[in-house]
């Protein structure tokens, strides 16, 4: 994809009722990607669109991409405190280096809710835009990875990747939490956790709270970025998943790219 095309994709992603920071130019081909782990996000849509217009104008006048760095940051494996700390520190270093754009390359089965939220807070507080890119082929942004993708300015996936299955799971519990509205659980949100012991499956009240909180969280991210909030709820409540092609068709992501070069070319 050319500079105008990635800029146009970012501009299209920004054309939503949300706020996001200005997008920077692509990395010079002679410069290697810094090796860190990071995410980013937040500023104003109008500023982002104005900056993209200036970028395209500069490219047209000068005949080459505007100067600036794009950082590639890998998030690979289960998300926990170490990866979250690595991501936050990587973001701080990208900021200090005046990076214009950060690509977060994700391949994760998910991880801890607290670590995921720390990463998303860093994304939402960052001054530069972030592209979350699920890659390479065969990678996934499952569970916590889906929330990270929803938090990004621009969401992209490589062919043969998938995302979803975002139902929260209590690690260390004797079994997986049941999903809300399962058969036999039609009590509704008004029920008290002090009901008689046998009136609902053990832990179901707490599980409903956890799932409802997760739904509200990912829907908030979807509304912020103008992505498919209905499917996001299904990913949490039903454990729904999508391939890259289906994610593009359903408005969950904005781009499909074979590799990083294709993403930026």
Task: Describe what this molecule looks like in 3D.
The radius of gyration is 19 Å and the shape is globular. The chain starts with a helix and ends with a helix. About 30% of the residues have low confidence. Helices cover 41% and strands 13% of the residues. Helix 1 packs antiparallel against helix 2, helix 3 packs parallel to helix 4 and helix 6 packs antiparallel against helix 7.
Describe, in short, the structure shown.
The protein is an alpha/beta fold and 265 residues long. Helix content is 41%, strand content 13%.
Give the strand content: 5-15%
User: How do the SSEs run, as a string of H and E?
Assistant: HHEHEHEEHEEHHEHEH
Helix count equals 9
Rounded mean pLDDT is: 75
Low-confidence stretches: 18-67, 171-200
Q: Classify the helix fraction into a percent range.
A: 40-55%
Q: Can you summarize the main beta sheet?
A: 5 strands, parallel
Overall morphology: globular
